[in-house]
Amino acid sequence: QVHVVESGGGLVQPGQSLRLSCVVSGSIFSIYRMGWYRQAPGKQRELVAGISSGGSTNYAASVKGRFTISRDNAKNTVYLQMNSLKPEDTAVYYCALNYGSYWGQGTQVTVSS
Description:
Elements: E1 4-7, E2 10-12, E3 18-24, E4 34-39, E5 46-51, E6 57-59, E7 67-72, E8 77-82, E9 91-97, E10 102-103, E11 107-111
Parallel strand pairs: 2-11
Antiparallel strand pairs: 1-3, 3-8, 4-5, 4-9, 5-6, 7-8, 9-10, 9-11
């Protein structure tokens, strides 16, 4: 059984930073691509950033230059460093393994003054 658990969300002011973490149980983590997605109220879930098993990354245009995805295979963990946060980044952030084979429960990020 694979479990995906996100953490690190919270309430921050515009311009501040947060780091999200996602831990995946089991021994399959290192061979799969991981992705961070988000869903704002009334909107569809969208890809924020992805990272391949080899470390290649891709980002949504709206977060490029502000967010950084990374992974630590020894810890079965993927991170999302979010800098210069904006109110429009407010959403529930989800971590997914292998293009959505497994999802976490999500963590709320709220950017507001």
